Structure formats: C-alpha cells, structure tokens
Amino acid sequence: MPNRAFVPVQEGTSLSEGDRVRVGQDSYLSLLLPNGSHVTLPSNSTILIRKLDATVLTSAIDQQFELERGEIDTDVVPLKSPRDVFRITTPSAVAGVRGTAFRVVWNPDQRSTAVEVTRGRVDVRHAAPALKGVVQTVNAGYGNLTSVGQAAGTPIKLLDAPQLSHPGKVQTAASVSFEVVPVEGATAYRAQITRDAAGLDIIRDRTSNSAHIDMGELPDGNYFVRLAAIDLHHLQGMQSVYAVIRRVNSISLSSSALEKNRYEFRWLSGQSDDSQRYRFILGLGPDFNAPLLDIMDLGDNGLVISGLPTGRYYWKVVSEKFDNKEYHSITSPVESFTIGY
C-alpha cells in the first residue's frame, strides 16, 4: 500500500494483493502468475497488484493490475471461464483480455495510455465511468491510444518487425551493437537483450533514433535480442527475435625494428586463454591476395622476422578459438610499415 516502504525482491519472492512493485533504472522484473501467465516490467515502471484471486469453488481467476508508471508487458494464458478476469488499468484506460500477448504504456506527460497487441485481442475502454461505454477491440498487429478525458482511440496498425542487417554476426567488439534494416514509418527502434527467447529475463534495454543501436559492454555468452520499430504515435510495433553470440575478442597490434635487420611483431587479445590460437599474415598490399607469410596455429603473442627487403609491408593477425565446439575468429585492423625509404 502507499504508506508501506519498498523492500528489495529476489528470485522466488512471493507477492500478493496490495503489493506495489517498483522497478528502477537498468532493472527488469518478470512475474509468474499462479495460472502460468507472465507479467514483465522494464526499467522505471511501477504497478499495484489490485487483485490476484482464484476462487476455490468455481476456479474463477481474477487478476488485476494498476500501471502507475512506465510499461507492462504481458503474456496471458487463455482464460477458460467467462468469469475469469485479467485486467490492466491506467489513469486513462482499462485493458481486458481473454488470453493474449500485449503491452501497456502509461505516458504521464501526454496523459495517455498506449496498448499494443502482438497476439490475440484486447478490449480497451476509458477508465472514467462517463466514457467507459465506448469499447475498442484491438486485434493482433494493432494498437491504440486512450487519453484522459477522451474515449478509447480507434485501432492503429503496428509497424512490421524489423530485421537485422547481419543476423549471423558474432558480437566480438568491445561494445555490442546492432544494425537493423530500416522500417518505413519508423521514428525509432528498440532493442532488448534477454537470456531467454520469450523475453522474460531482460538484461539490457535501449532505444535509438537511428537504425544503429548501441547496447554497450556485455559479458561473453549466448543471448537473444528482441527488436521493434516505433512509429510517430510512439506505438511499439511487432517484434523480431534473434539469437546472439557474444565473444569479446579484440586485438591490438604493435611492431618494432630490432638490430641486424630483424623486426618484432606483437599482438594483444582482449580475451586470451590457453585455447586461443593466432594466424599471422604479412603481405605487400592491404588486400593480402598473395601474402608473403601466412603462419597459422601460433600460441604466442608475437614473433620476430629477419631478412625483409626494402619495401612497404602490410600485416594483420587473426585470433581463432573453439568454444563449446563452436569456432570463433576475429581479424585485427591492418597495420603497415616501410623498410629502407
């Protein structure tokens, strides 16, 4: 209730009617309801659990939430009885479902509620008694806006799910980033990195005004990214989901001249262990079409070469690694040096 202090929650915490749940910056929470439905709260969101009942005699379900700030993402299992209720309320709208996947966003600045349906359908009406008679049925692939003092808005078609430009790319750079194929009508794009394909365990959430989305640093691992385009109404469109492999493997290069016409080449990998192997390539051009040297399976972080004649040389290093029987490689930037000029 409003006068109760907030306390930290952890995995397995049980919640009940009257509990208010607040999710802070860069935090995410997923709730598993008794009937198997899921409610996910991204950063900066607050809900009040109004009802969480299951009648013993009739097995009727009554689950009601009040969205006070931010957004709520739901995946509701089909409700079996006409008496079953799943409802989300904001200051301007009431959204009720029978079994669907949808998202509700309360924008206090605009005094407006956005509903976006990705599966099933949602009945939306205004929260005010004088306007509750106008009900808009929002089907999958559509959303609507309901402002304070106005009846529920008519459905608006959601934007198509964006596609990744390079879906098979292993994320090896210091910062994880994605390039999406632009979607017509999009004003922004949203990406969520999750540990599961269903998007219940969110670990990173970013929005970008361009088709390039920078997610920041991320530990090695196997993840999923959920992508959506945002339209001029600020409605989030349909989502696409891709598997993401993260393997940090940056390489920095250095070279130096030694005595007696010897040259030392060294490299440093951002993540090195006993399983890391290297390939050294030296050529007369940056395309390496006919390399002078191509030395594979190096375990050390450097080598010395002697007897190079006068000329301009180019070199690079490929870092190679097998991780859980999967092959991963990254190629360093090309470096050049000149002898005898």
UniProtKB/TrEMBL annotation:
Residues 19-122 form the FecR protein domain. InterPro entries: FecR (IPR006860), Ig-like_fold (IPR013783). Pfam families: FecR. This is FecR protein domain-containing protein. It comes from Paraburkholderia humisilvae.
